[in-house]
Amino acid sequence: MSDNHHTPASEETGDTGFFEKPGMRKILWVALLASCAIFAALGIYGMVAGWMHPYFTLDGLPVFYALAGAIVAAVLGAGGRLLSEALTKPSDYYDSPADETRPDDGEGRP
Amino acid sequence: MMAHLILRVTIKLLFAPIIVFALYVQFHGEYGPGGGFQAGVIFAAAFVLHALGFGLDETKKVLPPKVLPWLMVTGVMLYAGTGVATMLLGENFLDYDILQPDSHHHAGQHIGIILVELGVGVAVASTMLTIFYYFAGREPEIRDEDW
Amino acid sequence: MAIPGLEQLPVLPVVIPLVAAPLTLLMKPGRAPWAWATLVSWVTFVVTLLLLEAVWVHGPVEYAMGGWGAPEGMSAPIGITYYVDLANALVLTLVAGIASVVFPYAYYSVESEIDHRQTPAFYTALLICFTGLLGVTITGDAFNVFVFLEISSLSTYALIAMGARNDRRALTASFNYLVMGTIGATFYVIGIGLLYQATGTLNMLDLHQQLMGQSNRMVEAGFAFIITGIGLKLAMVPLHLWLPNAYCYAPSAISAFLAATATKVQVYIILRFMFSVFGFEFAFLEVALNAFIVLGIVGMFYASFVAVFRDNVKQMLAYSSIAQIGYMLLGISFGTVDGVAASLIHVFNHALIKAALFMGVGCVVLRLGSSNFAAFNGLAKRMPWTAWGLIISGLSLVGVPLTVGFISKWKLMEAAFQTQTFIPPLLIVLLIGASSLLAAIYIGRLAYAMLLQPVPEDAEPVKEAPHLMRITMWIMVLANIWFFFQTDVTVGVATRAAQALLDTGLGYGGAY
Amino acid sequence: MSDLLAGLIQNPGMLLIVAGVIVALLPGRQLRAIAALAAIIGCYALLASYGTAPMDAPVLMGESTLFGLDLVSIRIDRLSVVFATLFFIAAGLNAIYGWLHASRMEASMGLIYAGAAIGGVLAGDLLTLFIFWELAALSSVFIVWGGGTHAAFKAGMRYLVIQVGSGMALMAGVALTVAATGETAFTAMSLTAEDGSLNIAALLIFIGFGVKAGFPLLHFWLPDAYPRASAVGAVMLSAFTTKMAIYALARGFPGEDILMLIGAVMAVAFIFFGAAASDLRRVLAYSLNSQLGFMVCGIGIGSELAINGAVAHAFASVIYKGMLFMAMGAVLTRAGTLRAAHLSGLYRAMPLTALVAFIGALTITGVPLFAGFVTKSMTISAAGYYEHMLVWLALIAATVGAVNNIGVRIFHDTFMGARSDAAKVSGDAPLPMLIAMALAAAICLVVGIQPTLLWSMLPFDYDYAAYTMDHLITQMQLILFAVLLFALARRFGLAARPRDGVLLDVDWLYRVPGRIALAGVVRGTAAAWHRLWWGIQAGVARLVKGLYDTHGPEGALARSWPVGFMALFTAVVLGLMLIVTFVAY
């Protein structure tokens, strides 16, 4: 069971791409956190200053969207995982693995 | 050969009367019990009898199988031809009256029925004989190439 | 009838092949009998077209054989009469039309499947069978129906048995059919006998007059015998057992011809007896109609399910025919003009569909010697014309728009919505839809095999079927599309024919 | 022939179908691709020559009759034209994408499929709609089968059944409508009749549409079939069937309240399935289904803004979803697998494809400057304006779902991170695929930056400002915090990829218990029948044997058994018939 959970990292030395460099990762993290903060601040400011127009009372709450995003993401992450645990069956559950092989169709598929 | 002598003589004696009787039934059928179908069967029966007594090969010499399809066709054509003739003369299919239009005694009907019955007789007789020839001449095993 | 020169028209469709058949027997084996039979079928087709036109324009036509029509002061004829209204004119045209395409098609297929020496006999039997089918349809005399029924059946047994050169099982199939067919015909003749006992007449129109208001046990028994007898010949569902093998092992051309015509003619007979002879005054009709609903629906599903799992395409198509007969019975069972019209339309359309399909399979049998599914693998690459013809006519069978199958299905659904039966119309419509899905499955299976399965590696290269077979098959395929756009013939004629059939007062005494 | 054919042939979709048949006959992939592109451009020119017309005054063309029913081959109004234009763009992109890789079947059926979809949206009456509806179903089956595996065959069969079933529901509904009213016109209808009772005809049509639109519980064919198709085929499939259904719903059931509920359930439920699926194209398929929920909601709200939003979102969705399927197709072509567990770090070998996937992710999540932002906010705004709070919440949730399914699963997990073995591929996507993806990306950007281009085509004139500070801030908050949460989860090892394998869906019901039940019924019936039949046979055999032991050889009898029983059966039927006759009176 747990072998299905492995992260597909055959991490080899010297195969570190542009985005895997520690410096780059740090920059990305900073950028993400900064933009989160900026938009949260803008949202709060807009709500307080009154130029934001909520549809309902619910989204009149400052940073409502930020909260919604985070909460739904958490629920989705957990839910998706639960669903995967509950409903995933081995690949040959319906079809035998032989069903997945492709007979040559004569057209010379690449 | 001698064993069947009585049988054969009898058959020879009976053969002609059977044919005559067939013809009688044939031509009587126009206005009395009888007709082409019965006559054809009786006619064929004479030949069947002949084959029983003298062997199939002898009968085939008398009435070669090659002739039979022609007879069958002739019979049917005689029947259908009468019908077509009445049509060509301007009446309905098999409306014999037109064959002798001036008659007040339905002579046309007589002519027509005689022709039709003759056709039936010939066709039935030849068909019966064909069936008989096939059955009697059937080889015990059917070869593959016959299929 | 007032068209000069055409008085003889009603009898010609029977006389022409009848006269031509014996002549065929005398011909030299090979091309001559085939050419002759083809010519005859064409001439007959032209005659039936003229007849259809005459009936369309002038109304029902009667023809007294031998001039033995109704004497002065009597309504009923004393001899055999031929009676042609739109219903049988349509079926006549259909039978002759199918023949005029299948007969030319037959040449190569017959050369390969039947002993060369037997070809004259084959075409003779074919023409006799053709005569019989036309005669059954055209005649207005109940006993004459029996005669022609036997004419067509006996020759059919012989024709099916001729498939024995390819597969000896044809002999058993033919024998089974012989026994069953004879029982059916016997039942029919018993039924006729009972009706004759009750009424003293054999003329269909006169029978109707005499039966009006009569509803005694004898007539009811006669009705039951007739419906069972014809139901057997029709391959109505519990009585269908003879059909799959008969169609499967017959020579290809015969499968195509019979599938497109024989059962269709029986449907016509059922219609004629139920509505023209017995009519709605006959109380027992309702019971039979209700039985037909059940039998029709059971047939639609049972046979389709079986078809899905067949490994032989010919058998699959044969079972599909049984299922399609279910549709026709369903249409009849509504007992309305629309329902009967839908049934007649499906008779016509299904003939086109099945002819095309069996002809396509015949092409495959000719080239690959088998009608098993395995032979169809990769067919689109090996015999593209045949494969695509099969696919288009298969789509028509499913009832896809732009093909005639759609017209049938649509009309049937429309008719279903306008009826009151003990099954709610909506359910019937959904059942029709559901059984179309089954058709989609078995045709899909065929399409998949032909289009997407690889050609077997050890397969020898094959040529396309001969031009003659391909062209004739494609005529049928194109007819499947043509009659979608040209619905005047089918829908127009069938609707009026159904009106005439149901409005029994109207059909009687049209033109003595 | 008749005016029916003349009418049909004026329909650009029909011409494209004809072109598809011709393409099937051409040799060589290149030639077929060129011919396909030429046909698409030519047919589009024909459509363009018809111009457009406002919603309340459609231009009708190609009128004809089929057995007494009035058919209208073409209805030009802004709703039909925008969908037809969209399908032409999609068909063109598909033709380019499959330039080198489309098999003969895919090239030809793809054109027929596109033609059927175009014909369907242009159809002026229900019967013509049904004609194209069915053609779309049948042609697309071949595209599913084009996957070439036996699993694809089986999936194609299931797809065929459900698609034809949808057609049959539609046909039954249309037949009922015609039977009741004699009218075939395709106009807005309602599920409830005037007296409040259920309108069966409309319900049947609604179900027919719903199957193709992927309504929950009727959706299972979609994630079943799409991942089975080939790389090229899946792109084709993603564009037409479902959007055609969206068009049909927008035309037939605008403002039908139940659609809001259905759409909300779709939008939310399928993001979970998407999160749990392991095959990447299956993830896309679920995500597509969730996006359909957006459109269904919009149609359910039914205001001019909402319909506009639904249509605009359908437009954007075809482009970006097609683009994502293209990217995944490129990965499949190169890496040979789309199992999520086996792929990561692909960006090194396929940087351009990675970029496309990134743009796709930006578009679908609704980042400003990309098409998704403007089209999504229309529907969300409409839900907000008309106080449909549940719908509104569902749409917000669906946006977060897109962040996870596309942004994280499709883009990040597949292309970023450490390189897996399967990701060591020879190179980026082939050139035609890249061109198609680039064009799609360009459309996403153009629509995102200059939304008025799209809005001028929408059914209603509605002045909507997408780029307001409100929208920007709320949307960015939503996306950024969702991303933040996913990133944190990754960082702290809380998130795991879904297990590798098959994700069960509603189709399990008929593929496992359904099959067992069916097999059981069949076996049971067979056994019962067998017992009955052989019981009778044995009984009769004993009887007959007893009789014939004294009378003759039984060998001959044994041979004729089957016939004997058929005959017996006939007698039984006759007997029943007679009994019924006598009992009945």
From TrEMBL, chain A:
Species, as recorded = Aquisalinus flavus
Region Disordered, as annotated, extends over 90-110
- Parts of the chain that traverse the membrane: 27-51, 63-83
Q: Where is the composition biased (Basic and acidic residues)?
A: 99-110
Write down the superkingdom of origin. Answer: Bacteria
What protein does this entry describe?
Answer: Uncharacterized protein
Its keywords, alphabetically, are:
Membrane, Transmembrane, Transmembrane helix
TrEMBL record, chain B:
Q: Which InterPro entries match?
A: CPA3_antiporter_subunitB, MnhB
- Major site of localization recorded for this protein: membrane
Membrane topology (UniProt): Multi-pass membrane protein
Instruction: Please tell me one Gene Ontology term that the record gives under cellular component.
Output: plasma membrane
Q: One Pfam family, please name it.
A: MnhB
Na+/H+ antiporter MnhB subunit-related protein domain segment(s):
6-130
Tell me where it resides: Cell membrane
Q: Which UniProt keywords apply?
A: Cell membrane, Membrane, Transmembrane, Transmembrane helix
> Where do the TM regions start and end?
5-25, 37-56, 68-90, 110-135
- Record-stated family: Belongs to the CPA3 antiporters (TC 2.A.63) subunit B family.
Q: Which NCBIfam families match?
A: PRK12508.1
PANTHER family in the cross-refs: NA(+)/H(+) ANTIPORTER SUBUNIT B, NA(+)_H(+) ANTIPORTER SUBUNIT B
- Name assigned to this protein: Cation:proton antiporter
In its UniProt entry, the species of origin is given as: Aquisalinus flavus
Q: What is the lineage of its organism?
A: Bacteria, Pseudomonadati, Pseudomonadota, Alphaproteobacteria, Parvularculales
Automatic annotation (TrEMBL), chain C:
Could you tell me which Pfam families the record lists for this protein? Proton_antipo_M
Q: Which UniProt keywords are listed?
A: Cell membrane, Membrane, Transmembrane, Transmembrane helix
Looking at the record, the residues that make up the NADH:quinone oxidoreductase/Mrp antiporter transmembrane domain are 141-423
Question: Which GO terms label this protein's molecular function in UniProt?
Answer: NADH dehydrogenase (ubiquinone) activity
How is the protein disposed in the membrane? Multi-pass membrane protein
Which compartments does it reside in? Cell membrane; Membrane
Cross-referenced InterPro entries: CPA3_Na-H_Antiporter_D, NADH_UbQ_OxRdtase, ND/Mrp_TM
Gene Ontology CC terms: plasma membrane
TM annotation in the entry: 6-27, 34-57, 86-108, 120-139, 145-163, 175-198, 218-242, 254-275, 287-309, 387-407, 427-448
Keyword Cell membrane appears in the UniProt entry: yes
Q: Name one GO biological process term.
A: ATP synthesis coupled electron transport
Could you say which protein family the record assigns here? Belongs to the CPA3 antiporters (TC 2.A.63) subunit D family.
Name of the molecule in the record: Cation:proton antiporter
Give the species.
Aquisalinus flavus
TrEMBL record, chain D:
Keywords on record: Cell membrane, Membrane, Oxidoreductase, Transmembrane, Transmembrane helix
**Which Gene Ontology CC terms are recorded?**
plasma membrane
Spans through the membrane: 6-26, 33-53, 79-100, 107-124, 130-148, 160-180, 200-222, 229-246, 258-280, 292-312, 318-337, 349-370, 390-411, 431-452, 472-489, 563-584
In what residue span(s) does the NADH:quinone oxidoreductase/Mrp antiporter transmembrane domain sit?
Answer: 123-397
Stated membrane topology is: Multi-pass membrane protein
GO MF entries: oxidoreductase activity
Q: Where in the cell is it found?
A: Cell membrane; Membrane
Name one matching Pfam family: Proton_antipo_M
PANTHER family found in the cross-reference section = HYDROGENASE-4 COMPONENT F, NADH-UBIQUINONE_PLASTOQUINONE
Q: State what protein this is by name.
A: Na(+)/H(+) antiporter subunit D
Task: Give the source species.
Answer: Aquisalinus flavus
